[in-house]
User: What shape does this take?
Amino acid sequence: MHDINKIREEPNFFLDGWRKRGLNIDVNQILKIDSNLREIISDIQSLQERRNKISKIIGKVKSEENSREFSELNIEAQDVKDKIPKLEKKKLNIEKELKDILYSLPNIPSDDIPIGEDEKANIEIKKNGSTDNEKSPPHYEIGEKLNEIDFETASELSGSRFMISSGNLAKLERALANFMIDTHTSQHGYQEINIPYLVKEDIMFGTGQLPKFRDDQYKTDNDLWLIPTAEVPLTNLVRKKIVDEEELPLRYTAFSHCFRKEAGASGRDTKGIIRLHQFPKVELVSITGPNDSHNELERMLSCAENILKLLELPYRVVLLSTGDIGFSAYKTYDLEVWFPSENRYREISSCSNCQDFQARRMNAKYKRNRDKKNFFLHTLNGSGVAVGRALAAILENYYDANGIINIPNVLQPYMSGKKTLNL
Assistant: This one.
């Protein structure tokens, strides 16, 4: 959500920001609608003032038995009374038109990210770990050889892009989630939250999933939505609240299953567990003041990185371009983990600073200590990390030619001390 006052003051700033995202937005049209709205509001106020003035005069005229003036005032009062609701209705329509436009427009990107149409303009920041290991079979073949990943039965139960895991792989998946949550709470200072998987429409709207990405979401028949990420309920914990400044930053983490139609992913990653309709993920959310969100993004990135370091998985950090960042994002880093079977990196986490974009949609503020004034919060989110993709990366990176999958050291305590999986 954008502040119309700022668009009015700095139209070229917004025009340039949206152009960097590849959008040609008619800012003048937005300002024209805004001008019409303010004009109608002014007309309504003038009529209300005139109505109040007539109300004061009409009693005096009646007492003076001035029937002619009384009749004229009555006619004018009725005219004013008829005009106000018509203008009020017009005002509501224009307000909705303006809000619909503003709600549909993405966040303005940071000046320090690359400008480009898509992921080809992204910049690699750094790499960690060796990618010299031998090429392995795809993770889904390894899982099927273990007889512990079943796509066929999942398809019979739920359709395509679903998976059933069992035995040691199911336990390894649970181990990964527990390890991530334990690390984020004990080492990184995040508070664990158990969240609902179904949320109301305005909660989805608050973080920017609606209205733009309606076709990617699952909706129930009682107007609740399945969460596409735990970011949605976690960020909305401060919705319509005023947080005391000394409480900041707020840092939340949650394990959840996530649900996406993947409507725009037709034909991509149809095999394996990279792109499922239901998938497990550990999410990180931070709520900060405006001056702290830049450093908080770097901190969040380092927390997600630490998970991959502890798992000893090769990865790289990528700064996303203006054409690749999400709708609500101001700046985003992607963490990409190495997949030997494909000889390339795949995204396993996105860490984003949304600044006050989501807070405006949620009406989430904090009270500044020095002057007790209220300001919009800044919100950040990131995967800490995607559990299914981490499982897939472990199957490939810890596979050896003897048909053994070594279990990462940090996960062995969660696996009852088990060190290997044998094909």
User: Anything to note?
Assistant: The longest strand covers residues 278-288. The chain has two domains: 4-104, 119-422.
